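anyone else get weird line breaks when pasting these?? whatever heres mine. first is seq + tokens for prot A
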Amino acid sequence: MPITEVVSDAQALTLSIIADYAVPVERLWDAYADPRKLERFWGPREWPATFTRHDMAVGGFSHYHMTGPDGTVARGWWRYLAITPHQQIDLEDGFADEHGTPNADLPSMRMSFFFESTATGSRFRSVTHFPSIEAMEQLVAMGMMEGMRSAMSQIDEVVADLTTFAAERGTDAQLLNDTTVRISRVVRGTPVQVWRAHHEPALMQRWLTGPDGWTMPVCEVATTVGDRYRYEWASADGTQQFGFEGELLESHAPHRAVTTEQMIGTDGPATRNELTLVPVQGGTLLSIVITYPSKELRDMILGTGMTTGMEASYTRLESELGAA
């Protein structure tokens, strides 16, 4: 059990929890930076979490839900206020309704996470600031303290895992719900480098070509919200071609971009693609959360071997960044 101290201060309206871990502080930090790891401990053991958004940058948001043993779903959100890498995260934490909208009927809190190196590994300190004594009493009565104890007791298992989320792993696809998939890959490079690689046409045409034997003759990039993009690929022998087009909905360089995507020549509804870039050990965690219009389309696209082609592209991208 890593928790060493719990202090509730009704006068200061704070709840502080301190925990010690026998791992470097960088590995502990990455447990919060990587949504795949965060899902394995945020929330009580009986209420596992799923993060459908996690752009850990100042001004960014995380959206998540926890599912209870009987299928009950509780939703929440974070808004990042300040981040000092490997030292501190300040955020606002609140509840959400079934649509993901902040729930005004329940209080929000300000939370500060502190990370520091120790002689035996690292120490984590969480300080929750409540807006009033009534809010503090309400949230404690709802089981907040027990939930945090349960959540933090699971971190040991996550930070001890050196293989599941290692930078050496290839592209992974994780089903978040019936229509949403998260594609994850640690790319050896900085977020600025990886962002540039997704926005400079000449560079994109060198790496974003999927399996060997394909080229990218058309690369029209959207740079301003509202702009449209168009990408086309062709086999080297000229016998096959396909492409995608869409609109840039959000852009927050170098952390997050949201686009629609539709195959050229089709009339069906588009997907929504959310790209986030977060620095982690070994490089940049690239995540793409793709929301499909239906489960059937999701399964059909995944069945084409999409992640195999993406892995070939990301391997090529790392070679490009290494040569830069």
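and prot B, same format (seq, then tokens)
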Amino acid sequence: MRVAMIGTGYVGLVSGACFSEFGFDVVCVDSDAGKIDTLGRGEMPIYEPGLPELVKSNVEAGRLTFTIDLDGAVKGADVVFIAVGTPSRRGDGHADLSYVYAAAEQVAAALDGPAVIVTKSTVPVGTGREVARIVARVRPDADFDFASNPEFLREGSAINDFMRPDRVVIGTDSARARDVMKRLYQPLFLVETPILFTTPETAELIKYATNSFLATKITFINEMADLCEKVGGDVYDLARGIGLDGRIGRKFLHPGPGYGGSCFPKDTLALARTARSVASPLSIVETVIAVNEARKKGMAARIVQALDGSVKDKTIAVLGLTFKPNTDDMRDSPSLEIVPALVKGGATVRAYDPEGMEEAKKLLDGVTWCDSAYDAMEGADALAILTEWNAFRSLDLNQVKALMKRPVVIDLRNIYDPADMAEAGFAYSCLGRPPNAAGS
């Protein structure tokens, strides 16, 4: 089968490369000529472990190509994926579907034979039906079927998520689309991946419901960490105690400075807005959104508190800027709230991130950019860990202490053992754990 992937953002590029690894002929399309030129040189526009090697091997095998020619890519394609961005619309939080609808019109005009048009973008319920209407309006003679196929890729482990997913969700009313999509995902049958067929509306809701539920788990454990601090509990033991319950599970029970990234913030907001628009409000999701925003804003206050209530004329080393490790994604990262608040408070911020520095420089002003974690600590009054990169988990504490003006560490990811830090002579602040807690 021949696959056209419209959009070479995170989802489109990873999905296109993985489908080509399955043995299909994949053409990835983007209107950004600069991005296509970059991909043609074998350079990745995003940081994702394993992606450069996957793209390179499939380009060399002739199964994966990149182009700005949408018409040429769609002609002769058996499956056309729409994988363009759906950012939050400024002002009301609804998903901006203009790119999706524009792509649908262009795809419709280019169709020259039977094809299945698939939305891979994260879209509100009902979008798929509208895409089908657009295609039918532009090309009343078109022979096409429609399906929704939401992605569940985690940044930093996207290739494994695609190749060994928990499930594949396909929403369609068409027998032909169902057959084509089954053939497309046939390689996953070998690892017994569950394939769930639903209506398009249900598939669209599954994506939003998944991300909203996971965001809720994160927000819940963050609030439990705050409660542990007030009553002398240990959130690490609490998370293990509830996570061992099979009905709850251990994943996404790690306290932090609030969720961020390209999915959770915009998807929770879009789902809440959709629910409001049909008079079926989701109070839990709306509360999660509000609590998470407040948490990110409140993290700077923790750093200020650790420095006797003021950061004026003090130097703070910040390790980690991206919303999570193994990505260069800065979208809605907690650092975008924390760092500006520190700078506004009069602090000198010395920052380092293994992969996110170039993106961070576009978004953060008044920061001193450093070449390494230890460089950031030079003369610092405090060290704040905002992202749990592996490179930060085993720092030489003696060297850290020697570099810093004061041995103050605010660990917003709980990657160090409070007892070990106390023994090493640090004033150590973390989330939801008593000073003498052991184990991590």
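btw re prot B: The chain has two domains: 2-198, 212-429. The longest strand covers residues 2-6.
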